Amino acid sequence: MILSVKERGQFVATIRWVHVALMETLAAWVPTTPEMEVKLLFGEHVWDLAQHADALGKRTFELRMPLQHSLRPVDAYATLLDEIAAVRPTAQRLAAIYDVMLPAVDHRYRRYLDETDSLIDAPTVRILTRHFHDMERMRAAYARLRDELPELPREEPAWGAALRAREAAIGNPVAQPSPASAEA
Amino acid sequence: MPATVAIGTKAVRGVEVRDDPAREPCFDIVHLHEDVPDSGGMDREHRRQRLHRDYNQEVQTIEIAALCLVDFPDAAWDLRMELARQCWDEARHAALIHQRLAASGGRKGQYAIANLDWSVVAMLDSMAARLAIQNRTFEAGSLDIEQVAMRLFREAGDPETAEVLDAIAADEIHHVRFANEWLTRLTTEEPRAVLKIATAIAWLKRVVAATGGDGLHEIPTDHEARKLAGFSEGEIGEVARLAQTVNGAIARGQDR
Asked: What pLDDT is attached to residue A1?
């Protein structure tokens, strides 16, 4: 089965919403995280996430949606992201982004690529494929920081595992549009 | 629920400003410019002090750009992209300055720091006011300062730091330029933004008066950098005239 233009647009707009939320989360953590090196890591990755959102937002326009359009995901996903944004300890912040959310986004991209037609949806495929490289670089930067600063606090693996399980349990993050918005 | 930054306010000499952003325990945070070590001259110790101040300055600039992304989620996407890019630029600048600090035998937390730029700008409640104060005033001022600093570091036998400052200045020109462009757009679309900017400038003067801020030292206006950053010839002339007037007043005051 081929994903329709509407289904592809909804996925792209939803994942754009997620990238903007993650960008804002990292931005909010810059002034409230004490470790200078971690602030710099977040500052760099604010830009990566903004670029991802921007590329996805240009694609929404090509899929009959407004330019830079975002769709709020299902409540469970939005709630999870809210809870992550509220995390305070540096160790949990790092785990939530680099051990949970970036791999989770990577996984959702791959699931989408398995479903979409690589020729019909080639522009989306190109965007997501480029983002794989960026997300790998972001996680590598985090791993380097860990090597350079072994004293950086580390969260218990069980905490990240529980968060990862919650994310995975959500299933499709795309919220079903109401009949009114479906017609819009 | 959108992301928020839960940092309250503090009083500095009777003026309410934003409380400090988070810092590691190794830092001794002070609240007045005069309490930040600055021994003057360009010997090794002074160069370390300067790099330490600049390191914290760059970090504050990331924090301010990041805060704009959080506080103004409905700002135009293209402007948010500029601010997100600025977060990365300032992170690179901080890393570069930290490298130079380490190369000169320094370390983070070696000297006391003040976060006055943050404390002022993070109080402002409009994007236009923040761009006017942070990018168009503080960063434009740093364009002038960096030209002088580059020469001083070269003369002190530290061309590597001079090169780093030159690279940083090139990035800063764009940060001032995009602010100039967006201020024109914001004030055209919403004339009330001009009032916000005027109020912010008056507020800045109050804080500078209370905290004993730098004001304008004997730093020549960097005509070329300001032109690249989008200032008109008239505006550059006005900055140079203002600097002369203030410096003249300071000199007259010192003569008394």
From this structure: 72
